[in-house]
Structures are given as structure tokens and as C-alpha cells.
Amino acid sequence: MGNGGNSTDDTITGYNQNMCGGFVRKDGWDIPGNDILSSPVQQPDYGSCCSKCQATSECIAFTYSPSSQRCSLKTSMRNGGNSTGDTITGYHFQNMCDGLVRKDGWDIPGNDILSSPVQQPDYASCCSKCQATPECIAFTYSPSSQRCSLKTSMHNGGNSTGDTITGYRFLPLRASLIDIHPNAKWSKNGITIAGGNGQGSGINQLSKPCGLYVDDDQTIYVADQSNHRVVEWKWNATSGQVVAGGNGQGIGDHQLNNPYDVIIDKETDSLLVCDDSNKRVVRWPRRNGTSGETISSNISCVGLTMDENGSLYVSDNKINEVRRYLRGESQGTVIAGGNEYGNRLNQLAFPQYLFVDRDHSVYVSEWTNPRVMKWTEGAKEGIIVAGDQGQGNGLTQLTNTQGVVVDQLGTVYVADFLNDRIMRWSRGAKEGSIIVGGNGQGNQSNQLNRPVGLSFDRHGNLYVVEWENHRVQKFNIESNK
Questions:
Q1: How far apart are alpha carbons 300 and 323 in whole angstroms?
Q2: The domain spanning residue 306 has which CATH number?
Q3: Do 410 and 327 fall into the same domain?
Q4: In a domain, 112, yes or no
Q5: How far apart, in Å, are the Cα atoms of 83 and each of 7, 65, 419?
Q6: 58: which residues sit within 8 A by CB, 6+ positions away?
Q7: What does the pLDDT look like over 299-313, one tens digit per residue?
Q8: What per-residue confidence (pLDDT) applies to 268?
């Protein structure tokens, strides 16, 4: 069900493959673009529109409006989303696969699990093979050749010159691919994987690093705040590579000014950077980029994340709100806070870092309020999921929360900045537990010094950015039972 989403009303999605000759019906869903015909045609009912799609070889989906009787044939389910009207989508079940996102016209060179592609009769069969292979993150399929290639990563993906389709497992950004047990334990001693060579501007150094992004192959991207750059560190590398900024502090398109966070947009193969002091979000080409493009301005951005539809979520710590920007949108919609500075359930106080789960619930850390809030989609106020028992170092308390990630059970992991520790809060818990740090402020491998950025990799290992130690540490998961 690539790009499927929650309905805004009482819409029910059906999964009967016999409905209209092998097509699945999805009410309250629309697909902008991807049209086969230059304009919609008139059809008296859903079944007639479906029949027209069946008779058109390149048609894998269609949209139909009962009120206008407009029937649009589609080459792809790409960019589908909730309809504001009565639009219905029908799609061929052989072209979909539940749990993976479909990306037409996209190929992934390399990253192969098998030594050579295998033959599969359709996209869904290739998808099923990927689902049955634990290390498979994505796959590519060519309908013309029926070649199915299983992949360990989306890395190096790009537009296809042929009919190749990519399917990939969607993970919330910074989440783990493996399920994490409630009693999972991580190594008490971290491994320094970036920086750790003192504060400085050398290519093996960091200066006041903040947010990070961990790619499928464990390459990390670090917002190196005081060096006004984003640095890429390959796994096991002893030095990094500047991939954005690094041209001095400034407001030019080729510069950054105190970047706080970075993520990768795989759809455009670009970096998205919170350029805080320039009050903008910048899109920077991931490969050989020399300058960035401002995609959102007049925003004091601290944290960034993205959902499976490509919608961007940004925290603004000056006007105390979180906005969601649909792909291509410039204004955005307030989805958390926006009711001035404060500690009520409908307010935020200097929102920091963000996590968005599969249900589009947004988790927000706050600098001043000692808590983490969860805002479900469409909510007018948040739910406290960690802290809010005053500032302090007790297990019920937090002080200046920073990076936040959430596992498949809804357990919250948060960087407790002034307490130099990472805390785990189970769903509904009244107190947390220390999983990393908590051994006093310091630079030993079992200590943290002002943790900020936080992320899992696909294997459940935990990455922590330390603002005062100018390093990134990796804490391996040791027990997951």
C-alpha cells in the first residue's frame, strides 16, 4: 500500500483483490499527477472507470469522483494522499505490496544481496521475496525483463532510464529496523565514530556538533554548528568530508550559519539543513553540491524530520511551534504548539528536536519545559510522554531535553542535556531509566558531556552527539531480550 495514510473521516479501505477484476478500492484517496491522459474522461461509475484502466496497458491505478464522474488513469501511485473531496482510487493489487513504499522510475545500482537478479512474475512477488529476506531494505523490479534485485540499502538510488521500479521499507527517520525489546541493553562504553580530537575546524574535528542523520550503510551526517558546516563520516573513517557549508559563517547560498540539524531527503537525493542563524531551511545537493537552495525562510529552525510522503516537519523555537510542509509547499501548517510560549498542553517552550512515527504522531522535545510531548495527527494539544516533574536529575525528571527517538512499542528515548544521560521512558511510565551516560559529566567512553543529537541505526545501535565533547559516540546494542 505505497504511500497509504490515515483517513480524515470514517473512510474504510478495502483489500478485496476480486473487486473490479483484481483492483483494490481505496476511498477518500487521490493521486495528483502521474496521468496517462491529458485530461480526465467522463465515466458513469467507479466500475466503468476501472474497466477503462484495465483496457489501458500502462495503467496501474485510477482515480474516480462520483460527483463529477471524472475518471483519471495513472501510471503510478506516487504522491497519493487523502482527498479533500469524494475521490476514490483503484489500483491493481499486483503492483502494490503492503508495508513497502513504491517508487516508480527509480533504480538502485549496487547494494545487492544476491549475486544476480532473480526472475519474478510481477512487482508484488519481488516485494514478497524482499519481505522474506531479513537484510532486505529495498528491491528493484523491471516489469519488461521480470528481473528482481534485493538491496541492503537505498544508497546511490536515482532516476531510472528504463521501467525499473523500486520498493523500500519505510522506517521513521532515526528509528531502528529491528524491534527493540522493552528490556534491551546497550553497551555502557561508547565508540567514538566522529570527532573526538578536540574542538577545532580540522577535517577530523568537530566544534559544538548538534543533530545527526544515520544512513542505511552507517554513514553519518553531522550538523557541525560552530564550524558552520555539515560533515559526512563514513563508517570506520578517521576523518570526515564537508558536504554542505564550510565556507565560513555567512548568509550566502554557499554558506551556513549555526546549523542545528540535518536529514537526507531520498526522493531528491539531497540534504535538508536547519540553518538556524540564517532563519531558513536549506536543501543542499547530496553529491558535489557547492551551494544550497532555501526552501523555507523566516523560521528559527532547530529540529527536522520527514514522513513517508515526503512531508517535512520543522520546529521553530522562537514562535514555539512545529510546522508540517507538504512536498513543494512553502507556507506549511502548524501541527504542534502555535499558542505562544508556555507549559500548557497546547503550548511549547522553545521546541527542539522532532520524531514522527508511522501514524504521523509528532514527538517534540523542549528546552525550557522538562518534558517530551506527543502530538497525534490533527490534535489541538499534546500528551506528555516523558518528564514534566520539574527540572532535576531524578528518574522522574529531565533538564533541557534534546534529541528524541521512539521505537515500535512507543518507548521514548531522549537526550537529557544538562544531566549528561540518555533516558528511556516506556509507554505510560511515570519515570524513566538511564540507558547511556549518567556517570557524571566527562569525556570517558562511559560518560557524556551535553548530549544533543540522537539516532538509532537499522540494527538498533544508538548514536549520541556530544556538544561539549565535540564527538559522536556509538553505543552498540548488547542484549535485545
A1: 12
A2: 2.120.10.30
A3: yes
A4: yes
A5: 9, 10, 46
A6: 36, 75
A7: 999 999 999 878 999
A8: 86
